[in-house]
Amino acid sequence: MPAAKSKKAPPATTIEEGTFPEIDLPIKPPYPPWEAESEGKIPTDDGWLYEPKWDGFRCLAFRKGDQVLLQSKAGQPLGRYFPELVEALGKLPVKTFVVDGEIIIHDSFDALLQRIHPAESRIRKLAQETPASLYVFDLLVDSRGKSLAELPLEERREQLETFFEKIPEGQMVLSPATPKLKEAEKWIGGEGLDGIVAKRLDSPYLTGERGGMVKVKRMRTADCVVGGFRWAQKGGQVGSLLLGLYNDAGQLDHVGFSSSFSADEKKELEAILKPHQGGSGFTGKAPGGPSRWSQGRSTEWEPLDPVLVCEVRYDHFSGGRFRHGTKFLRWRPDKKPKACTFDQVKRKPTAAG
Predict the structure, then answer these.
(1) Averaged over 270-289, what is the pLDDT?
(2) Is-contact 173 160, C-beta < 8 A?
(3) pLDDT tens-digit profile of 23-46?
């Protein structure tokens, strides 16, 4: 008889909040990373550096002597979830640095999500079974302890490549980059990749800002806050997730739903959503009441604390909402709910190409 499959625990949906110990570096965590604007086309004019967009967790890594700290994009400590990376970075011959990169587990974003777990024993088991790597694309503090953040990217990239000449092959990897568009286009649709990032070569590291960097994803996706849910008409299970984005006034607007879940997934959803029931839900535009399209179906919904973030795929966004139901892709525990704004679904004109 085949061996029984072990039941996989549902991934945690939020990273635990925490504080960082003091570290003797000119840049210290939490340090807001430079962020990209979403675009529909790759910029083709001169002065850009192209990089693959990895399908993982953004991470800033800080090292000073025996101290190694890992920070998420949202400014949360990541070290407890990736002990193998803390250990690997602590053994490097270069003992001082701050780098920006992406934590990935090859061929499996799901394996990455499984790391966000409350049990240390579970995390350490997974760290041995599916070790993570840190793909580095920027150097913010060099081995002498000098901040490079004000330098243009072109100079930082040169110093990053020199820095990696001292780094042995292992779990910290130099992410590729090229100024040639033809080479970059090969990364679209590549295995383990989520698209292309283009950065201005003359730009300093714009901490906490969007500008001088754009991302072009291979499919249209958005990170949304789950502000509530509706029960299915039959079976007493979760029927759909109600999605929200924050508007310019800081209010959470309802923008659509996602409902393409299997029976097993609906059971898992109930366990994930239950602890957050009864929260503030949508503080801006809320889901409407019955309409002529509801055909007798209940439109009542349950509000949630706005703490859960998920990534969805969509085909069209207009009039402040997704025009059709979205496809749920995965939870994003590494994203702050407040970072889920309308900016990511606004398409700006780009250079023709």
Answers:
(1) 89
(2) no
(3) 999 999 999 999 999 887 889 999
Q: Is the pLDDT of residue 70 over 90?
A: yes
| Cα dist from 183 to 31, 42, 180, 199, 202, whole Å | 32, 12, 6, 15, 20
SS3 content of the chain, % helix, strand, coil (to 5): 20, 30, 50
- Identify residue 165 by its one-letter amino acid code: E
Structure tokens at 259: 């409902």
Please check whether residue 27 lies inside any domain of the structure.
no
Cα separation, 157 vs 140, in Å, equals 10
Dist CA 251 CA 282 (whole Å) = 8
The structure's pTM equals: 0.76
Q: What is the residue type of 218?
A: R
Closest CA to 14 of 336, 350, 345: 336
138 and 286 fall within a common domain: no
Structure tokens at 245: 């984005």
Contact 241, 224 (CB under 8 A): no
SS3 call for 342:
helix
Owning domain of residue 275: 221-345
Name the residues annotated as catalytic: 53
| Residue 265: its H or E element | helix 263-273
What confidence score (pLDDT) does residue 189 get?
63
Domain boundary among 180, 200, 217: 217
**For position 78, what pLDDT does the model report?**
96
